[in-house]
Recover the amino acids of this structure.
């Protein structure tokens, strides 16, 4: 059965609404998105033919500030997925107490099948199509799966050319040379590291002696694997879209990152001690910390019972379904939920946006200090609510996030 991420997102709202006794009118309101745009993107391919792609931009809630959320290029992108991702961005920004709302965008395309010129044309046409929906005080996109700093640079340029002036604040995750922020690229991984360290302290676990499994080896998965490897943890398995590799003695993450950064797949890495494993085998390995850092709906009812770790650290958005969440909770597995755990990215994106608007740039030391402060403040709030109410960390995180949104709706009132 194909799982619909937006149905998962709505179920999560129901769960938290029951737990906190949320006004039913607000509950219904939060299950809706504010607005969505579907665009057609015709692209002239290098061979002269024309291919047509579909793109989306969704704003779930701008009640606390302009929309914020990444842009994903993937053949699996669809409107409901983008709606779910936009909804999760609302909770994430609220939980971290950033003055931003939730948004997301995507194009249904396999970018690996495009040349660099085709990718640039696709990006620029998509940016033109959504131009009226984005802007520094409207909605600020950022990188997500299969998008990066170069793609953000093309969006910034397309927007700026249309406005007749440089507008760096229209996107975050840009190259530093055109208004990007130091520390943005590894920020999501850094945030994951801070909250994992904080949870280990609560659970009396020694971080350096943990055995780790990571699904996804891109920006998020690669960074957290690297940080934990450097700290001395044993990284037993990692995977990318080509499959997973495993070694009971631990993998050499530095070498694997060099390999994948040259555009290679993990499955093609040759080492006699490394064994190829499937996605299902990877997720169900016996380990201390499992880090899903690829896509949504990975830990589901069918495999939740077989998950064997102490902690699930959600690098990806929505990797665990609501049913699976219950199973993990009953098994005593601690899940550090996406809206908390992977919030480091949007946090430093917010710093980038502030720096662009003020045209004044911070040092890396300041970025990392402020990031840590925000991540740990959110972690402590979530942990306290989960203990007080004897609920899982996800529901606790949602209660804090939804309470802030509900208060903002009450204060602003319903227009007209
Ligand atoms: P990325 O494109 O840099 O990397 C994605 C990785 O996942 C790649 O290694 C890819 O090969 C792998 N992958 C794709 N499909 C897979 C599959 N079916 N099975 C196993 N691996 C697969 O993307 P990213 O920026 O690292 O994003 C990963 C996740 O983290 C997404 O859910 C994204 O929404 C979330 N996230 C990203 C950021 C950020 O700052 N980039 C912030 C918060 C959350």
């Amino acid at each position: 059965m194909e799982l619909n991420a937006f149905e998962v997102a709505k179920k999560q709202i129901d769960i938290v609404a029951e737990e906190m006794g949320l006004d039913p009118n607000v509950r219904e309101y939060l299950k809706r998105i504010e607005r969505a745009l579907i665009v057609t993107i015709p692209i002239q391919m290098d061979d002269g033919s024309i291919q047509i792609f579909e793109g989306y931009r969704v704003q779930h809630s701008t009640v606390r500030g302009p929309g914020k959320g990444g842009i994903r290029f993937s053949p699996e992108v669809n409107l409901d997925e983008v709606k779910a991702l936009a909804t999760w961005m609302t909770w994430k920004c609220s939980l971290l107490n950033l003055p931003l709302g939730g948004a997301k965008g995507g194009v249904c395309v396999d970018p690996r099948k495009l040349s660099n010129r085709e990718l640039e044309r696709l990006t620029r046409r998509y940016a033109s199509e959504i131009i009226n929906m984005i802007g520094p005080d409207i909605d600020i996109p950022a990188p997500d799966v299969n998008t990066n700093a170069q793609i953000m640079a093309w969006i910034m340029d397309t927007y700026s050319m249309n406005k007749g002036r440089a507008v760096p604040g229209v996107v975050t995750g840009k190259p530093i040379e055109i208004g990007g922020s130091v520390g943005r690229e590894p920020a999501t991984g850094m945030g994951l590291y801070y909250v994992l360290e904080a949870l280990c302290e609560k659970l009396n676990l020694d971080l350096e002696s943990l055995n780790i499994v990571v699904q996804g080896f891109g920006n998020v998965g690669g960074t957290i694997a690297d940080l934990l490897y450097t700290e001395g943890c044993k990284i037993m398995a990692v995977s990318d879209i080509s499959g997973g590799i495993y070694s009971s003695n631990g993998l050499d993450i530095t070498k694997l990152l060099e390999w994948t950064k040259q555009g290679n797949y993990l499955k093609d890495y040759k080492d006699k001690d490394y064994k190829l494993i499937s996605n299902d085998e990877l997720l169900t390995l016996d380990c201390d910390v499992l880090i899903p850092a690829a896509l949504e709906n990975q830990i589901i009812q069918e495999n939740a019972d077989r998950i064997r770790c102490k902690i699930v650290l959600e690098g990806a958005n929505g990797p665990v379904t609501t049913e699976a969440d219950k199973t993990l909770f009953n098994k005593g597995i601690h899940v550090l939920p996406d809206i908390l755990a992977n919030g480091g990215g949007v946090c430093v994106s917010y710093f980038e946006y502030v720096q662009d608007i003020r045209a004044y740039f911070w040092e890396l030391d300041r970025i990392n200090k402020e990031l840590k402060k925000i991540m740990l403040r959110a972690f402590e709030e979530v942990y306290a609510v989960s203990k007080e109410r004897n609920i899982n960390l996800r529901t606790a995180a949602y209660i804090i996030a939804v309470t802030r949104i509900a208060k903002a709706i009450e204060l602003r009132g319903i227009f007209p």
Summary: The longest strand covers residues 50-61. Residues 56 and 227 are 34 Å apart (CA to CA).
